[in-house]
């Protein structure tokens, strides 16, 4: 049995933002932040829609989107535009779920012919934000694991539709974005995939392909 996470109501989030705006002053800093953040997202979406980028650098870019407070847009845009094109040949696909890991982990998977097609919860970072309070009140990060499970299932179905079915799902529970209890929940509901939980299953990093 999993202890579901607390899901904030939109009015509660709006109250927090209103309180912050009083402290910030008359200038609408939240609107400026939202516009800048959406520019980051649009840049990354455009780059990835035009080409298949190297898995490790894409993961790194997605994790950078988790904290834009001290990020320089010019530097970030240069980084995104410098992402290397992925020309690898792959036998299988995987989904990664969990806390940050060194990007070289995905280089290893690539070398084994395993392409990581989605990274959760980082996939949610590229969704444009129209209403800040609504975005944070409905964010899958603040919803029960069922919300993420639905998105994982949607990714699996999309991959099947394009003839590239997902074979593996890899979990990295460290208590930031993914707990041990949540991992167990996903394992019980994704039994059709070959599952691996870091780090024990990847000591020596060997997968059967």
List keywords for this structure.
alpha/beta; 209 residues; 4-stranded parallel β-sheet; globular; single chain; 47% helix; 4 strands
Overview of the structural elements:
- The chain is α/β, with parallel strands linked by helices.
- The protein has one domain.
- 47% of the residues lie in helices and 12% in strands.
- The protein contains eight helices and four strands; from the N terminus they run ααααβαβααβαβ.
- It has a four-stranded parallel β-sheet, with helices on both faces.
- α1 crosses α6 (132-138) and α2 runs parallel beside α4.
- The protein is globular.
| Count of helix runs | 8
> Structural class per helix/strand content?
alpha/beta
Gyration radius over CA: 18 Å
Order of secondary-structure elements: HHHHEHEHHEHE
Largest sheet: 4 strands, parallel
Instruction: Give the overall silhouette.
Output: globular
Secondary structure: number of strands: 4
What is the mean predicted local confidence, pLDDT?
80
The tally of structural domains comes to 1
Percent strand: 5-15%
Span between termini: 33 Å
Helix share bin: 40-55%
Low-confidence spans: pLDDT under 50, at least 5 residues? Answer: none
Spatial order of the strands forming the largest sheet:
2-1-3-4
